[in-house]
What we know:
This protein is mostly helical. The chain has helices spanning 8-29, 34-37, 41-55, 57-75, 81-105.
Amino acid sequence: MMRPLRSTLQRRLVLHGVILGLCIGMLMLFRTDSAAAQSLQKLENAADRLVQFFTGKFGRSVGAMAFIGMFLAAAFGFWSWGALLRVGGALAGMFAAAELVGFLAGN
C-alpha cells in the first residue's frame, strides 16, 4: 500500500525526479548521429512552418486580441494586473524566441 506524500520536501523531490527523468528521456530520444541529421529536412521544414504560423500574422492577431481582452478585463476589475503582466511577458517571449534562437545559433 502506498503512503501519500505528506511533506513538501517529499513532493518536491518526487516532482524534480520526474522532471529530471523526462529531460534525460528527451535527450536520449532526440540524440541523432550526423548521418541521420541529413534526413531530417522535412521535419525541419514542418517545424519552421509551425514557428512561422505562431509568430506570423495569425499569431500576432490572436496575441493582440488576447492582450486587448485581458487589458479590458483588468481595467474593469475582472482580471488581475499581475496576471496581465505574466501573460504579456509570455506573449513577448513567444515572439522573441525565434529571434533569440537565431541569434544564439549565429544566424
